[in-house]
Design a protein that fits this description.
The protein has 511 residues and is mostly helical. It folds into three domains: 12-191, Growth Hormone, Chain: A (Up-down Bundle); 201-256; 262-511, MFS general substrate transporter like domains (Growth Hormone, Chain: A). Helix content is 77%, strand content 0%. InterPro entries: EmrB-like, MFS, MFS_dom, MFS_trans_sf.
Length: 511
């Protein structure tokens, strides 16, 4: 195999299937544990801040390692890279399933994350190299099933398992699938993208870890500790300095770890901007709906997960369909339609009440996921199509890194907005009830949350959730405005067909 990123005549479907399985279980695992966190808190006797690190730590490791994926994909063969990543993920899963203490479980999650960080960039890079540009929409649509459906199914599956079995079953189910994928890859996987003899700049790794790690840690901690906490804004400042230093260094290197010069391609830059905004908006429903369903409405984790299942199924069904529509019509039309639906449904979520019908919530959430399914993969694929083949690893690494960072930032912002609005609403509602004579001032000692009646706390939290969805509506609207600037990236063959006859004659004569 040459070092050029050549496109094979016949796509390696068997190899792609193996990568799909590995990527699916690694992404599924990222959201699978969220519903189980209360059970883990009880078993290991840890507080909410500590147990949250099972999710935050996973995201941190991904954010630190994903920037290096472009180097790893180019430096090592597809087979060796996948086997190494899958071995780490399988080992982490096994340790998590037998973890005797919380520290062991946290370490196991970190090992899992170190393996899963490379899965998505590797799969996307193989897909880009395996299919010609005019067929990538359908291919990436199928890939979207993994990217979108896995995290959407996670809460439903987790809710059912936790309600009927131990949280350890979450890892016991993933373990045999991961092990089978690893065994098959050893015998069946091959290399198609080629590799280059490039050296890793160690200082870039250090700056990347400080930059992305600091930002992810700071923003992830803000939801619990608040923005005024010195540790929160201190790590964000250090992370920002590290990130700026990292970018400056990459621009000076001949062979950078992460190629920021790809932003000279306008459609890729626009696709990145839209993806960042969408990732932030997407977290509004993923984070706020379980809080509304379980905490305010008192509905079980199982039913909370089931609420999201139709949306997950719709996204899975629509992903390949959207891919084919992208091949035919391009990303702009799909993105505008999808983001209009997403913005509209997000606004409707900002008006939910204490007695909103469960069926209404299911329909709204399903329509929201339907809109999302028409946006992410078409926009990302259109942006990647503009890059030279040699920059595909850089593009996929950049996209995955930004999604992790923007997801962490988005969730932190939304949680903070919800908490602050809930606190102010609780104070206002208490004062209104005291003024109306419905509440004895002696019942509320100094406004302490523990002294406020649960009905008032629930109403205040509902106001906080509604307001946060309202803010998310504007975030989604920004992405909708950006979608109007999308232009379709055409293949080289399409461009040649559209050339004037005189130009074609000149090219033939020159040949």
């Amino acid at each position: 195999m040459s070092n050029n990123h050549s496109i094979e005549k016949k796509p390696p479907y068997g190899m792609i299937a193996i990568l799909f399985i590995g990527a699916f279980v690694s992404i599924l695992n990222e959201t699978l544990l969220n519903v189980a966190l209360p059970s883990i808190m009880t078993e290991f006797e840890v507080n909410a801040t500590s147990v949250q690190w099972l999710s935050t730590g996973y995201m941190l490791i991904n954010g630190i390692l994903i920037p290096a994926s472009a180097f790893l994909i180019q430096r090592f063969s597809d087979k060796k890279l996948f086997i190494t990543a899958m071995t780490l993920f399988t080992l982490g899963t096994f340790l998590a399933s037998i973890a005797p203490a919380f520290g062991v479980l946290l370490a196991a999650r970190m090992i899992q994350a170190s393996g899963s960080a490379i899965m998505m960039p590797l799969l996307m890079n193989v897909m880009l190299n395996a299919f010609p540009i005019e067929k990538r929409g359908a291919a990436m649509g199928t890939f979207g099933i993994v990217m979108i459906t896995a995290p959407a199914i996670g809460p439903t599956l987790s809710g059912w398992i936790v309600e009927h079995y131990s949280w350890r079953m979450l890892f016991d189910i993933v373990l045999p699938i991961a092990a089978l994928s690893l065994i098959i890859s050893i015998f069946k996987l091959k290399d198609i993208t080629g590799k280059r003899e490039i050296k890793l700049d160690i200082f870039s790794i250090v700056l990347s870890s400080i930059g992305f790690g600091g930002l992810l840690y700071g923003f992830s901690s803000a939801g619990d500790d608040g923005w005024s906490d010195p540790w929160v804004y201190g790590t964000i400042i250090v992370g920002a300095i590290g990130l700026v230093s990292f970018i400056v260094r990459q621009l000076k290197l001949d062979v950078p770890m992460l190629e920021f010069r790809i932003y000279k391609y306008p459609m890729f830059a626009l696709a990145s901007a839209i993806s960042i905004v969408i990732a932030m908006a997407m977290f509004s429903a993923m984070i706020l709906m379980p809080i509304y369903i379980q905490t305010i409405r008192g509905i079980s984790p199982m039913e909370s997960g089931l609420l999201m299942l139709p949306g997950a199924l719709i996204m899975g069904i629509m992903s390949p369909i959207t891919g084919r529509l992208f091949d035919k019509y391009g990303a702009k039309v799909l993105a505008i339609i999808g983001l209009t639906i997403t913005t509209g449904t997000t606004f409707f979520f900002s008006n939910i009440s204490m007695d909103t019908a469960y069926s209404t919530l299911v329909i709204l959430y399903t329509f929201r996921m339907f809109g999302m399914s028409m946006v992410m993969m078409p926009v990302m694929t259109n942006g990647l199509n503009q890059l030279p083949a040699a920059n595909y690893p850089d593009g996929t690494a950049m996209n995955n890194t930004l999604q992790q960072v923007s997801g962490a930032i988005g969730s932190a912002l939304l949680i903070t907005i919800m908490n602050k609005r809930t606190e102010s609403s609780a104070t206002d509602i208490v004062q209104e009830n005291i003024a109306a004579g419905n509440l004895d001032p002696s019942q509320v000692t100094g406004g302490a949350e523990q002294s406020i009646p649960q009905e008032i706390l629930n109403l205040a939290m509902l106001n906080g959730i509604n307001f946060t969805f309202f803010i998310s509506t504007f975030i989604a609207a920004v992405a909708l405005i950006l979608a109007f600037f999308i232009k379709r990236v055409k293949s080289t063959s399409q461009q040649k067909e559209e050339q004037p006859a005189e130009t074609k004659i000149e090219q033939v004569a020159a040949e």
